[in-house]
Amino acid sequence: MAKLNRIYKLTIQTNLLDQALEISNPITIDFTIERGIYAGVNSMDIDIYNLSPKNRNLLFQDTFDPKAYKKIILEAGYLGKGMSIIFIGNIFNAYSFRRGVNVITHIHAMDGGLDTQTTQTSLTLQAGSNIGDVINGLVSSFPHLKNGTQKIDNHVFSRPVVLDGNTFQLLKKYTNNEVFIDMEEVNIMKDTDAIEGYVPYINDESGLLATPERRNASLSINMIFEPRILVGQIIEVESKIAPQFDGQYKVIGLQHQGMISDSVSGNCTTNIELFVGAQLFGKFNVINAKQQQIVN
């Protein structure tokens, strides 16, 4: 049984491309995942302990191979409660090294990094096209990214629209920089938009590990590992030590960090960045998410 009941499944596309390697307990992993609305590209760094030589060779990825796309998915959760997908992306580099008695395979992955850097669009839309046509035309240019949760206006262009250049930069231009990639999906939301769904209640009893900290326009909270949190959703916070921060907030960023192991009782936490500007009840425009990243 996993220490502290944490479980995971890591699915990785190998060098054979048509084959995937699945890794799970009891193999130990140590990871850091950064996801957010304002970050350039979400990322994951993960160490996998003591894979077989054959599997280590299947995962090797040269950093200087920008055209190679190998998908990686990490699901995690707790025994008896199921798992949630906490990262989807592609491998940018993977290599192995020895540390003491362990052989560690390190993988650096990015969510949409390859598509946003390399995809170009050359497309002309007729007069009368709307902003939705522009967004769909751009997103369809990506080889791996898909439409996600989006709220766009009904602006209609009276002249032809010429789209020529880096696709992600064009998306930023036509959405006023209100676009972000998460779980290989293109999401378009304003600061006051929030994804529809359950509102988790986070307090000292349910997992809050420290006093919430205000940092300019955001509030930072640290809690026990919570894989179900989504970027863009609303959560409710209550703190006995800092009740001035109690209320509902939108998640604008999160970091999962720690170890999942059957043999080592390592820490595993979630740090959440919350938008302060619309934290009061009824101040969010709730929109439907395209899909829930929950695995039963």
Stretches where pLDDT falls below 50 for ≥5 residues? 291-296
Q: Secondary-structure element order, as H and E? A: EEEEHEEEHEHEEHEEEEEEEEEEE
- Hey, roughly how much beta strand do the residues contain? over 45%
- What Rg, in angstroms, do the CA atoms define? 20 Å
Distance between the termini: 19 Å
The global form is flat
Output mean pLDDT.
89
Q: How many beta-strand segments?
A: 21
Number of helices: 4
- Main beta sheet strand tally, sense and closure: 14 strands, mixed
- Secondary-structure content class: mainly beta
Helix content: 10-25%
What do you see in this structure?
- It is a single chain.
- The protein is mostly beta strands.
- 10% of the residues lie in helices and 46% in strands.
- Strands 1, 2, 3, 4, 5, 6, 7, 14, 15, 16, 17, 18, 19 and 21 form a 14-stranded mixed β-sheet that branches. A three-stranded mixed β-sheet has the order 9-12-11, with no helix packed on it. Strands 8-10 form a two-stranded antiparallel ribbon.
- A hairpin with a 6-residue loop joins β1 and β2.
- α3 packs antiparallel against α4 (167-174).
- The longest helix is centred in the middle third of the chain and has 9 residues, at 131-139.
- It starts with 5 loop residues before the first strand and ends with a strand.
- Residues 291-296 have low confidence and may be disordered.
